[in-house]
Write a structure and sequence with these properties.
This protein has twelve helices and eight strands. It is of the alpha+beta class and about 300 residues long. Strands 1, 2, 3, 4, 5, 6, 7 and 8 form an eight-stranded antiparallel sheet that branches.
Length: about 300
C-alpha cells in the first residue's frame, strides 16, 4: 500500500504534514468512538471523516461525514469546528449533509477528537444556537466551493460502496462444469495461478465483476448470472472481515484494499470448506487464515 502520494486531496495535505506518524502502523489502542476524526481510505480514495455513530454489526457500519481542513471551501450546509476544538490547531469543516454509512474497515487512522461535539446532531445543534459557524452560501454552481462539495459526494459514495462482498447462490462450480471449463482454462483467461482457479471451480473462491466479464463469453452466461452464482457469504463472515481491527492486517497482504479483502474472504471460505478453524466463529477463522498465511497470529 502506498502512502497516498498519488491521491489528489488538497484538504488533507495539512494533516499529512502535522501528524508525523500518519502513515505508521495502525495502533490497536485506537478505539472507535463518536466525535472522532479519522482518515478513511480505500484503494486510491481518501478523505478525513467525522464519526457520528455506529449503525449495526452486519457490515460493522458507522455513520461518518467528510471533513476538510480550513473553512474557505465550506458552504452554508457545513459546520465549522474552530482551531481550538481539536489537537490539529486548525479549523475543520464538517460536511454534515454528506454523511453516509461506511464499513469500519475503511477507517485507516485516528487523527483527532472533536471534544464536546460527539455527534452530527451536537454539531448541528451548536450551529443553530450560534456556538459554531457555518460556511457561506454557494451562489455559483461552477465555483471551487461547489466543486469541492461534488468531489466530496463522490468520495463518500466510493467509501460507502467500498466493501461490496458479492454473495450468491453457490452454483458457480456446477456452471463451470456445465461449460466444460478446466482449471487451466480458468487460470489462463483470468490470469491467476491454478490454485486460485481451483478455488473458483470447487466453490471456495469469489468471482469479482472483472473476472465475471472475462468468464462470461466462455461460459455463455451473463455477467450478472455469474456474480449471482458466487458462494453464499454469511453475515458472520462479512462482519468478521470488516472489523476495524482487520484494517492493518489487510495491509500485510500487500495488495490494493479491495483485492486484499477479496483474498481474505476467499481464505476464510476455503478454511470453512476444509472444516478448519472454529466452525461457529468466523472471527476465529479469519485469525487462523492470517496465522497460516504468515506463520504467526497477526
Amino acid at each position: 500500500m502506498d502512502n497516498g502520494d498519488s491521491v489528489t486531496n488538497p484538504w488533507i495535505e495539512y494533516v499529512n504534514m502535522r501528524v508525523p506518524h500518519f502513515y505508521e502502523s495502525w495502533d490497536e489502542g485506537n478505539e472507535l468512538a463518536a466525535g472522532q476524526v479519522w482518515r478513511a481510505r480505500w484503494d486510491d480514495v481518501v478523505s478525513m471523516v467525522f464519526v457520528d455513530k455506529r449503525i449495526g454489526s452486519f457490515r460493522n457500519l458507522v455513520r461518518v461525514a467528510p471533513v476538510t481542513v480550513g473553512q474557505d471551501m465550506a458552504d452554508n450546509m457545513t459546520v465549522i469546528l474552530p482551531a481550538g476544538s481539536t489537537s490539529l490547531s486548525v479549523a475543520l469543516s464538517v460536511w454534515t449533509e454528506l454523511a453516509t454509512d461506511v464499513a469500519e474497515v475503511v477507517l485507516e487512522r485516528l487523527i483527532s477528537n472533536a471534544g464536546q461535539y460527539g455527534s452530527l446532531a451536537a454539531l448541528l445543534e451548536a450551529s443553530d444556537a450560534g456556538a459554531l459557524a457555518r460556511g457561506l452560501p454557494v451562489l455559483n454552481l461552477s465555483s471551487r466551493r461547489a466543486q469541492t462539495r461534488r468531489e466530496l459526494a463522490l468520495v463518500m459514495e466510493a467509501l460507502s460502496n467500498a466493501v461490496n462482498l458479492i454473495s450468491g447462490n453457490g452454483a458457480l462450480p456446477d456452471m463451470i462444469a456445465a461449460a466444460n471449463l478446466t482449471v487451466k482454462a480458468i487460470a489462463e483467461v483470468l490470469r491467476v495461478n491454478p490454485a486460485a482457479a481451483l478455488k473458483l471451480a470447487n466453490g471456495t473462491g469469489l468471482v469479482g465483476v472483472v473476472q465475471a466479464r472475462a468468464l462470461s463469453p466462455l461460459m455463455d452466461v451473463e455477467v450478472g448470472v455469474i456474480l449471482a452464482s458466487n458462494p453464499v457469504i454469511e453475515e458472520g463472515l462479512t462482519a468478521a472481515v470488516t472489523r476495524l481491527s482487520v484494517r492493518p492486517r489487510l495491509a500485510s497482504l500487500e495488495a490494493a484494499d479491495s483485492e486484499a479483502l477479496l483474498e481474505l474472504t476467499q481464505g476464510a471460505l476455503a478454511l470453512a470448506a476444509r472444516k478448519e478453524g472454529d466452525l461457529s466463529v468466523w472471527d476465529a477463522r479469519v485469525d487462523l487464515y492470517f496465522e497460516m498465511r504468515f506463520g504467526e497470529r497477526s
